[in-house]
Design goal:
The protein has about 700 residues and is of the alpha/beta class. It has 28 helices and 19 strands. It has an eight-stranded mixed β-sheet, sandwiched between helices. Strands 1-2-3-4-6-9 form a six-stranded mixed β-sheet, with helices on both faces. Helix 18 packs antiparallel against helix 24. About 45% of the residues are buried. The structure holds (2S,3S)-3-hydroxy-2-methylbutanoyl-COA.
């Protein structure tokens, strides 16, 4: 189904019907055009109403069509809108719920617009690295005024229909319906009202001027340019709207078209569109049907009131879910609750949280020292010390007290979830939920699927993740799951680079120029170098022949754990985060290098970035081969949401696709020649080698 046609009296109603959000795909555009000509040919029809079935008027162009010839196939959106404007009979858009992108542009081509209150109206193309490409940058300024229109186009953020209707002088909505339920009947009545009015009003004929013209657009450029340095689209939005204010309509439309097509082919837009689809694909688990029944989760228990336990609890309190926090000692509980209160109070002080909301959330928090109080919880998440013996004791207790059907989740970041499940008599109810610190801030949640984890447990946890606004990615069980398994290789390369001639600052600056939020050494100082130290001790006992640089161990032996000890790879001044290079550390690295008989060499930023990023890509290819991750785009989401990979590069796998897998493999062959590196690691993973040989991509 793409669009339904029905005549009510003497009004034709065309209903867009392309679930889930009436994306204006090719078939929908054809059906809409057919409906318009049918209505114009029918002498009994006096006016035409366009509306949307289901929960949207229209979410815009069909993003799933992007990059395919269908997206621009005639009748493309511009032609459909022109057909509407040239209709001999008035066309009225009846808008509700969601009216975005091409959907809003379609309505702007109509002669009249009636909107239900509560409708989210947006031109979000900029979030896809684009700009409205079907007249939105030319018509919205005419309907709303230059400044409100430019704000909407540059931000891409939705605005409620009733707020737009209140803008002085706006001509976006000719009429507001009293509700979404009465929208159609009110639209039919309105259509009868305007059926005979001529000439038919066209948004394109409205004036579009800005009193301060050049000065305003210069100001807009300065503002927008400052916040969008890695994204070309926002500044192009300013160019397009300036064209609306300075050129004739059709010339402005040509400018918009040229800007749109150019943006469509930028790597940044490809990355942002990839992320849009990857984010939604992550919630789909290949062998767990979308309609898998979920377990009801109304009350959650959290074991451990430390940094992680407190942060985890806040996620659920924020979503209105009751949390009972358990600790072994009252003072630990009191500290945990105090920290949560402090976090909320800081948000209230900054005006980010209303006092009544804070009180409502904190009222959902209760505490206990006894496991027996957890028996009614629907789910429990343990965030206790990362040691398998402690986990065993906790899960044995949980197995004893939790009601049948309760989900038992572990926040472990490296331990074996299958082993943890084996401590209980209900391994099917055990799952890993790896939050990233700070747990109430970081968007990423790795959901660790044990060998016996039940499908409805996974479906329940994925739905819950969406409710607490996390991007959940399913990982199988292996050392480090997805993100930490990859970062091990990234960290090894960082160490080799120091041994071969780099300073920590040089490596960090190179990857931060590439776009990472933080280089590996600043990140180590933030997370705590002792964490990596403990993992290396355990890991390299299991893999004695794994080659790695000893510099990080030497640093930890000096107690330089990072910001928490005021010194790590860098020095820190109390209360500040600036990383100050330390001559002693550089000397320690040089001495260590000399002890290995290594003559330092100058290493380019390009080699630094390639070795760090391609080490992620190669390990990720193994992760895909091992079935730990089900799709490359999931790995992109892990690195974008949890490890500060630059958004405009779309994630390590998307970036490797952009570079070309053949080129990635060529570089890896070069790295394998370096005797100080790990030639074995640089053998391309078979999947990567295969895709490269076949000229294919990960995504
Ligand atoms: N095209 C195709 N599918 C879309 C879509 C779209 N525009 N928008 C959403 N979907 C799918 C999405 O993939 C998911 O699919 C399902 O709908 C629910 O989405 C020329 C070129 C509309 C506010 O950028 O902001 O018009 O996973 O989980 O939270 O100028 O989706 O179920 O298979 O997000 O209720 C501009 C993007 C396009 C709007 C609904 N439009 N979408 O949010 O559900 S470019 C957008 C959204 C354009 C013209 C240009 C949101 C939503 P699945 P969801 P939601």
């Amino acid at each position: 189904m793409t669009a339904d046609y029905k005549v009510h009296g003497d009004i034709a109603v065309i209903t867009l019907n392309n679930p889930p959000v009436n994306g204006l795909g090719y078939a929908t555009r054809v059906a809409l055009t057919d409906g318009l000509s049918k209505a114009n040919d029918d002498v009994a029809v006096k006016a035409i109403v366009i509306t949307g079935a289901g929960t949207a008027f229209s979410g815009g162009a069909d993003i799933k069509e992007f990059g395919s010839p269908k997206a621009l196939q005639e009748p493309n959106l511009l032609s459909v809108i022109l057909t509407i404007e040239n209709s001999a009979k008035p066309v009225i858009a009846a808008i509700h719920s969601v009216c975005m992108g091409g959907g809003l542009e379609l309505s702007l081509g109509c002669h009249y617009r009636i909107a239900a209150p509560g409708c989210s109206v947006a031109l979000p193309e900029v979030k896809l690295g684009l700009l409205p490409g079907a007249g939105g940058t030319q018509r919205l300024p005419r309907a709303l005024g230059v400044e409100p229109a430019l704000n909407m186009i540059v931000s891409g953020e939705p605005v409620k229909s009733e707020l737009l209707a209140m803008l002085p002088g706006q001509q976006l909505f000719n009429k507001m319906a009293s509700s979404a339920e009465s929208l159609l009947s009110e639209a039919l009545a309105y259509a009868s009202e305007v059926a005979q009015i001529r000439p038919l009003p066209l948004v394109r004929n409205l004036p579009c001027k800005h009193p301060q013209g050049d000065a305003y657009f210069q100001f807009a450029r300065n503002m927008v340019g400052g916040m969008s340095k890695n994204f070309p689209a926002p500044l192009k939005c300013v160019d397009a709207v300036e064209a609306a204010a300075k050129k004739k309509f059709d010339d402005g439309l040509l400018t918009e078209r040229e800007l749109f097509i150019n943006l469509m082919w930028t790597p940044e837009s490809r990355s942002l569109r990839h992320i849009f689809m990857a984010q939604r694909a992550a919630s789909k688990i290949p062998d767990v049907p979308a309609d898998t029944p979920q377990r009801a989760i109304n009350a959650i228990a959290v074991i451990g009131a430390g940094t992680m336990g407190g942060g985890i609890s806040m996620n659920f309190l924020n979503a209105g879910i009751a949390v009972k926090m358990l600790e072994m000692k009252q003072d630990a509980l009191d500290r945990g609750v105090a920290t949560i209160r402090k976090n909320y109070e800081a948000q209230v002080k900054k005006g980010k949280l209303k006092q009544d909301k804070y009180e409502q959330r904190i009222s959902l928090l209760s505490t206990t020292l006894s496991y027996d109080d957890l028996k009614d919880a629907d789910m429990v998440i343990e965030a206790v010390f990362e040691e398998i013996g402690v986990k065993e004791a906790v899960f044995k207790e949980l197995d004893r007290v939790m009601k049948p059907g309760a989900i038992l989740a572990s926040n472990t970041s490296t331990l074996d979830v299958n082993k943890i499940a084996s401590f209980t008599k209900r391994p099917q109810d055990v799952v890993g939920m790896h939050f990233f610190s700070p747990a109430n801030v970081m968007k990423l949640l790795e959901v660790i699927r044990g060998a016996k984890t039940a499908k409805d447990v996974l479906a329940t946890v994925m739905a819950l993740a969406k409710k607490i606004k996390k991007t959940a990615v399913v990982s199988g069980v292996c050392d480090g799951f997805i993100g930490n398994r990859m970062i091990e290789q990234y960290g090894r390369q960082g160490g080799f680079l120091l041994d071969e001639g780099c300073t920590p600052a040089q490596v960090d600056k190179a990857v931060e120029k590439f776009g990472f939020a933080m280089g590996p050494f600043r990140m180590g100082d933030l997370a705590g170098n002792d964490i990596g130290w403990a993992i290396r001790k355990r890991r390299y006992l299991e893999k004695p022949n794994m080659k790695y640089s000893k510099t990080a161990d030497l640093l930890c032996e000096k107690g330089r754990f990072g910001q928490k000890t005021g010194a790590g790879w860098y020095d820190y001044v109390a209360g500040k985060r600036d990383a100050i290079p330390n001559a002693e550390v550089v000397k320690m690295i040089e001495d260590h290098r000399a002890s290995l008989g290594i003559t330092p060499r100058k290493i380019s930023d390009e080699e630094i970035v390639q070795r760090l990023v391609y080490s992620l890509v190669n390990e990720a290819a193994h992760i895909l081969e091992d079935g730990i991750a089900s799709k490359a785009s999931d790995i992109d989401m892990v690195y974008l949401m949890g490890y500060g990979f630059p958004i405009w590069r779309g994630g390590p796998m998307n970036y490797a696709d952009e570079v070309g897998l053949f080129n990635v493999v060529q570089a890896m062959h070069r790295f394998a020649q370096n005797p100080l590196d790990d030639a074995r690691f640089w053998q391309p993973a078979p999947l990567l080698a295969k895709l490269a040989a076949e000229g294919k991509t990960f995504n």
